[in-house]
Amino acid sequence: xxxxxxxxxxxxxxxxxxxxxxxxRDEASTPTTPAASTPKFSLAFILDDNKAxxxxxxxxxxxxxxxxxxxxxxxxxxxxxxxxxxxxxxxRQCCIDGCTNYTIDRGLCFRHGGGKSCSMPGCTASAKHRGxxxxxxxxxxxxxxxxxxxxxxxxxxxxxxxxxxxxxxxCQKTTISKGLCWTHGGGKRCAFDGCKRPASQSKQNFCAxxxxxxxxxxxxP
Length: 221
What we know:
This protein is largely without helices or strands. The chain is built from three helices and two strands; from the N terminus they run E-E-H-H-H. The protein has a two-stranded antiparallel ribbon.
């Protein structure tokens, strides 16, 4: 039998077996440190032993640097402008054009649908308490025995001491407006020159005597 001699084993110096991948790779062409633009999930980044630890993001490391806008409750509200007496009066009037009555409910006076009517059949008066007007028991009666008037305050009517007393010293009368009774200047006076009788808004600020009379409609023959 003829024997053959094997050639000596040649060591490949340009290629080395990577212990991690199990494949041949060119170490001469592979950089030892990945570039700044090398993706983190690339093979060159994972196999590099000399990679530096990434510095934490400054925004995450310092939570105090993150500024938050204040909530609406924390913001100081601008002070509201005070309404004038004329604006307050207009806000309390009925929203129907030309109506000067005060509102009761939903911006309407009683005549235009504001408030509730008396629950008694046929009664169109405004309900005070328990769905009834003052004529049908909707108001609280005076606690004085035998008195059928409505109570104003402390369970008493005006005649028996209910209501607020006049601010004038030693005056026991009930106030009408501005802390004064009628004798000491409380309430409205008639707009007619020289008349000191009581006036009301329903009579266009005149008394019953000087109230402007409505023109009668003449019927043509």
